[in-house]
Amino acid sequence: MFSRALKPVASVAVQNGAKFSTTSQKNFKVVVAGAAGGIGQPLALLLKQNPLVTRLALYDIAPVTPGVAVDLSHMDTPAQVTGHKGPEELAAAVECADLVVIPAGVPRKPGMTRDDLFNTNASIVRDIADCVAKNAPKAIMAIITNPVNSMVPIASEVLKKAGVYDPAKVLGVTTLDVVRAAAFIGEINGVDPTTVKIPVIGGHSGVTIIPVLSQSSPAVKLSDQGKIEALTKRIQEAGTEVVKAKAGGGSATLSMAYAGARLACAVLRGLKGESNVVECAYVKSDLTEASYFANPVQLGRNGVEKNLGFGQLNAYEKELLKAAIPELLKNIKTGENFVNK
Ligand SMILES: NC(=O)C1=CN([C@@H]2O[C@H](COP(=O)(O)OP(=O)(O)OC[C@H]3O[C@@H](n4cnc5c(N)ncnc54)[C@H](O)[C@@H]3O)[C@@H](O)[C@H]2O)C=CC1
Ligand SMILES: O=C([O-])CC(=O)C(=O)O
């Protein structure tokens, strides 16, 4: 029925602003773990439209999961969709995966911090990582679940224990911070936000989110330092802005699905052998005291091919970095201790 999926298709596709040829297409299997949720469903919808995805496995514990898969399978795009419900079907979902994207877990309600999600989400990510270690040890894992700063160390420790850890293959998804920074700068500068290039470094919560506004291209049209600081705060608190606006109905889902699909697409373009594929991600790092840190990385056939660092920071950004490090160290330790207790 979906035989097109297995043949190389010569065409040019555009997704999330990235143009790429699908000639010499490899068949990539992508898994979404947490696929029935607020992020999972629109993320799956976007991935179903990506010509690099030929198999899309949707995993969740929610009863609706097989139905979400059937629904998406009626789209006339090549990816074959399968639904997998409950822990006993997780192994089949991840088997032969190239990329496992994980938005499984609970989101924030107003008044909560991302760290408040740790107790619930830590075991969810640990168990999914454990199943990936056993059934798809070569897969790349892209972790959306919060708190990202601690979830990436959890997955990494699980893979280490299983003897299959490759730091190039575990990424914390911080793409939404970059997307937001570009959206806000586009608005300020009166330009198309997709033309804005802005690194956001550090981690993915409050003070650990460091938009490097001094490196924005085009330059941010704000001369006043007070306004730069206000924009920095807005980017750091943008997740909370959404949580408050949804008033108990969850956190960012649609913008996160967009950002997650962009990161997934970049990972697949790297796996396919495309050169100069660069995105920010939270990865194993020796650039600072923090053993995991987000900044631009080059993606390739093995995942993270090269850590591109974060270049020159101005005096204000150096202060932001100083404030971020203790928080990152604490978050990383919490994650590592959870697995090694
Ligand atoms: N990295 C980032 O930038 C962002 C991260 N997030 C995080 O993403 C996570 C998901 O958010 P939403 O999709 O809005 O939540 P949601 O509650 O709408 O969906 C979560 C899904 O995970 C599933 N789930 C729960 N336990 C599971 C398990 N053991 N195995 C598989 N699936 C399981 C649920 O059944 C549900 O379908 C939250 O932790 C949230 O904080 C949200 C926005 C941005
Ligand atoms: O704020 C939250 O809880 C969800 C999230 O990580 C974001 O929107 O950046």
Which structural traits does this protein have?
341 residues; alpha/beta; Rossmann fold; 2 domains; three-stranded antiparallel beta sheet; 10 helices; 20% strand; disordered N terminus; binds 1,4-dihydronicotinamide adenine dinucleotide; binds oxaloacetate ion
> What is the number of helices?
10
Ligands: 1,4-dihydronicotinamide adenine dinucleotide, oxaloacetate ion
Helix-strand pattern, N to C? Answer: EEEHEHEHEHEHEHEEHHHEEEH
Largest sheet: 6 strands, parallel
The CATH architecture assignment of the largest domain turns out to be: 3-Layer(aba) Sandwich
**Average of per-residue pLDDT values:** 93
Strand order of the largest sheet: 5-4-3-6-7-8
Mind telling me the CATH superfamily name of the largest domain? NAD(P)-binding Rossmann-like Domain
Helix share bin: 25-40%
Task: Tell me the name of the CATH class of the largest domain.
Answer: Alpha Beta
Q: In the residues, how many domains can be counted? A: 2
CATH topology of the largest domain: Rossmann fold
- Number of beta strands: 13
**Low-confidence runs (pLDDT<50, min 5 residues)?**
1-25
Q: Tell me, what's the shape? A: globular
Strand-residue fraction? 15-25%
- Class of secondary structure makeup: alpha/beta
Task: Draw up the topology in text.
Blueprint: E1 12-15, E2 18-21, E3 28-33, H1 40-48, E4 53-60, H2 65-73, E5 80-85, H3 90-94, E6 99-102, H4 118-135, E7 140-143, H5 148-161, E8 170-172, H6 175-189, E9 200-202, E10 209-211, H7 225-236, H8 238-246, H9 254-271, E11 277-284, E12 292-300, E13 303-307, H10 315-340
Parallel strand pairs: 3-4, 3-6, 4-5, 6-7, 7-8
Antiparallel strand pairs: 1-2, 9-10, 11-12, 12-13
Helix pairs in contact: 1-9, 4-5, 5-10
The chain binds 1,4-dihydronicotinamide adenine dinucleotide and oxaloacetate ion (OAA).
The site of 1,4-dihydronicotinamide adenine dinucleotide has 31 residues, from helix 4.
Subunit structure: Homodimer.
EC number: 1.1.1.37
GO molecular function, one term: L-malate dehydrogenase (NAD+) activity
